[in-house]
Amino acid sequence: MDHSHTDVLVIGAGPAGLAVAACLRRRGIAATIVDSGEAVGETWLRRYERLHLHTPRIQSALPGLRMPRRFGRWVAKDDVAHYLRVYARLHHLHPHFGIEVQRIEREDGVWRATTSNGDITARQVVLATGYSNRPIEPQWPGQATFTGEILHASRYRHAAPFAGRSVLVVGAGNSGAEIAADLAEQGVTEVRLAVRTPPNIVPRQLGPLPTTLVAIPMDFLPAWCSDPVNRLLQRLVVGDLTPYGMPLARSGLVAQQRATAVTPTIDVGLVAALRAGTVTAVPALERFEGNDAVLADGSRLTPDAVIAATGYSTGLQGVVGHLGILDIHGRPASTGARTHPRAPALRFVGIRSPLKGLLLQINLDARAAARAISRELRSRRVQRARR
């Protein structure tokens, strides 16, 4: 980079970082954007081929650019990558790539970001590195004795390499459920889905209405009000899956999301695969003994491959963990326009995944953060002018 100071530093050039920078630019503020990757949209291109957004097109656009109708209702991941590249060009955003921010400290009223390419100081900082920033790699007892293949879901692309093999998918969240369905639909011989935390499974849409649109008020309503209705809808639309090995969720959809940060599993094929017997739900994977995968009920499997849909972390602990502003899940206590008292002028966008959908939340938070940053910078200029 050719400078070490900026008014606004945006860390992350994904949807959240680009949205904040675009909103700032419309207010006459040119933010410096840094990202550890190589290009806009690259993380979307690397995801598994079957992936489509779980929010509809009209609910997924960033501020200042609609998604084209030709993308269809459920936008494919390659179209998301294309949209982000167009978005960056339209708003004249030029991120600096290959720069990893390692730590942020407050010094003399400004923020100092230590990066892989030198230090950057900034009056305002927006962390937009993503809700699912770093894969949580599995560490099962006896894992080293297993001679089959173990890979994290982030490295899964398509079912072809698993043809004719027995596959154990570990984790029934959105990634694990969709990967299991993809394997089954592509004819993989034997697919099992290991479940530790029983998910709340919901359909992608209720009649003509996308589920995430219906869920918008649930981000504000108390769980005791929303969850009885959710339970009824789940019974009517999804049905009882316990005969197929899928246990009931231990708490309601809203209660589970707020307590654990676990979002509901959007059904895009898993329920049909369970009913057809092409995916079998089994208890959680506890350990390996040689090539045996030992499950929580003591039963054993001998899979050829294990796909670990064991989730992601925000990756924020090393960057801002020392500031005391993260919760037990590694998420910031304040997001959007709000800042934590211990970290003035530091904001987070795109770090939480609400029921109404991440991209809609990014749209709202990016606008709010840009307004707050513009107001604070303007106030500072006024104060300096009066001195």
UniProtKB/TrEMBL annotation:
Presence of keyword Oxidoreductase: yes
GO molecular function, one term: flavin adenine dinucleotide binding
Pfam families to which the protein is assigned, alphabetical: Pyr_redox_3
The entry's keywords: Oxidoreductase
EC number per UniProt: 1.-.-.-
Residue ranges of the TM segments: none
Enzyme class: oxidoreductase
Descriptive protein name: Putative oxidoreductase CzcO
Organism: Microbacterium trichothecenolyticum (Aureobacterium trichothecenolyticum)
Higher taxonomy: Bacteria, Bacillati, Actinomycetota, Actinomycetes, Micrococcales
